[in-house]
Amino acid sequence: MVKKFKNKSKSKQQKAHLRRKEEQELQELEKRIEEYDTTDEATITKISQFKELPISSDTLKGLTEASFVSLTDIQKRSIPFSLKGEDILATAKTGSGKTLAFLIPVVESLLRNKITEFDGLAALIISPTRELAVQIFEVLTKIGKYNQFSAGLVTGGKDVKYEKERVSRMNILVGTPGRISQHLNEAVGMETSNLQVLVLDEADRCLDMGFKSQIDNIIGHLPPTRQTLLFSATQNENVKDLARLSLTNPRKIGVSSDTDVSATPESLDQYYIKVPLNDKLDVLWSFIKSHLNSKILVFFSSSKQVQYTYETFRKLQPGMSLLKLYGRHKQTSRLETTVKFSQAQHACLFATDIVARGLDFPAIDWVIQVDCPEDAATYVHRVGRAARFGREGKSLLMLLPSEEEGFLKRLKTNKIELKFMNIKQKSKKTIKPQLQSLCFKDPMLKNLGQRAFISYFRSVYIQKDKDVFKVDELPTESFASSLGLPGAPKIKMKGGQNNKEKKNQSRKLTQLSKTNEDGEAIEEEDDKKVRTKYDRMFERKNQTVLSDHYLNMTGNKKSAKDVDDEEEDDFMVIKRKDHNLVEEELPDLSIPTSKRQAKKALSKKASLAGKGNPTKLVFDDDGEAHPIYELEDEEDFKKAGDSKKQKEDFVNKEAEIMDVADVKDKLTAKEKRDEKKRRRKEMERLAREGDEDDSGDDEEVVYTLGDADLDQDMQYSDDDEEPKQKKPKWFQTNDEKSDTRAQSEEFIEVNEPETLEDLEALTSRLINN
Prior knowledge:
Radius of gyration: 39 Å
Strand content: 5-15%
Structural class: alpha/beta
CATH architecture of the domain at 36-253: 3-Layer(aba) Sandwich
CATH superfamily of the domain at 36-253: P-loop containing nucleotide triphosphate hydrolases
CATH topology of the domain at 36-253: Rossmann fold
Strand order of the largest sheet: 3-4-2-5-6-1-7
Number of helices: 32
């Protein structure tokens, strides 16, 4: 007993010593951050390694083991201000290390605020795509492996119920805007009152992908006292509006007022070639065949083109590993493709712009853009997948003759110069016969080629820059032939110019355009009668259910006389008699009027002039009636002062009223959300109490362990009941056996026969019964 008591006291002393040591380290860290001079430009440019920053030893140890030693420019300029708790609005080149620029301050902020696993959500990191969220989470687990924080990853394509049970226990949450917004609205235990840091990575891409409403919803759930770090590769009006709403006196880093597009990496060699549309796949195939020992990333404008090129090239076997990646892939396939391409030494990835932002694929040699990007910013993000962190890389852009002049001009305005590359005709190989053979043999591949053809034309049609993208100059037949198709598919552009002209065209002019040999307008029989939607419906093919009865009802099949002769119980028959009207017997309803009276009767304005225009009246406190829109006298208006001053006062007054109403609306919305969460918590508490009451029974519950984790396997849905254990017959007690006999008297209880006499007695007993 004495020995145990000494061990306990010793362990308590050790724990107290560790706590004092941690407190002392935090105090020293706070002192180093306060003493760090961020106003001196020389101090910022002088540091070159992470160990020179005022960060904790555990974070520095994680960085060193992950091979992060040297600082990049954006890390030098943003991390010191972030450590001091300032809001950051930063832009930088692609591949400049923005991920570490916000992950290190996040970990350090939670460490200095003494966040534990019981404090709930303390940091929120939002990224536009699932692949980028996974990459951020992997970097976070590497640099924060020696800290005691819990981190979670939530993205679309996963089980929501499985995430809801665990998301409330996370200190750091990384995810996409849609899924994070869903958890904030629905997850019961997810509290944001203790949030310290909010990070918006690739904020411009989040807004371009249509996540503005989700981001506004997320910001509405968060406390205003947080620190916000907003990182983006480009600056546009949407990002500036978001910064005004979510940042407080932000420190702007790397923001250039001259241009909205950040420069490309200096170690990147950029080339372009002029290629006709029908030769693009031939050039791409020839390029891949001549660069089999390279790592290539190929960009297309649509997912259908990615699928068609991948399937056809895979059958032709160029001699290297081929991969594909686009937005409509399943989550597991997207992650598997990303990992394969990252680990591969020589491979070719066909992808859409979903991988154009933020993703870090190691050692990409070539970035090829088969289709022209929509603007200069998209071009910068695409080529930024190569030449990352100072490594060498090359890019190749394929431009149509109609796109060359316009797009190169757009790049020059953003200070981007491309080198022209010639194509050697000897090394160029054509695959058009092979593609035609594949489409002829495989109807599925032919259908995929048709969809790729249509998707490319639609992608060009919807572009805003009509000086670069000219859909009318695209060769349809030759492009269809290059895809192996027998002819160009018909394309229906929704909301296009042709549809608008046809819609606004006069029907009378259309009828007049139909003339005979003598120049007289042809009036068809169908134009004489009014056609309804039911007429068109019954004229379609395979409409054989009600067509006979419809003809009977309209009289097109049988005359009225024939209908009268039929039985009265016939189905859907209208028996109608035509009445002969005699015009002499009808009363004369015409009233002789003058031309002035006729004009007055037909004019609504003239008819109201005599009676007076109708006006709405409102009553004041004294009971006197006034028009709802009563104009002020000119003299009274002049007495009130200058008109501009009156306008300014009125606008300011209305703005104050709107601000007050806005605050009330936000409070009301927050109260509704809190009430909704409170009710959900109450329901879960009652459910837990009910489960605890049921667990008091003596009946044993058996859980089956599957291939997932134990927590999921032990769950039951709300609608399903817990399976009952069925007892075997040989475990019945005597009371249960007596109850069974009372319910069914057909069973006879006997002892097991041991001798031949016992067996004969049992046989006779059974025969008698």
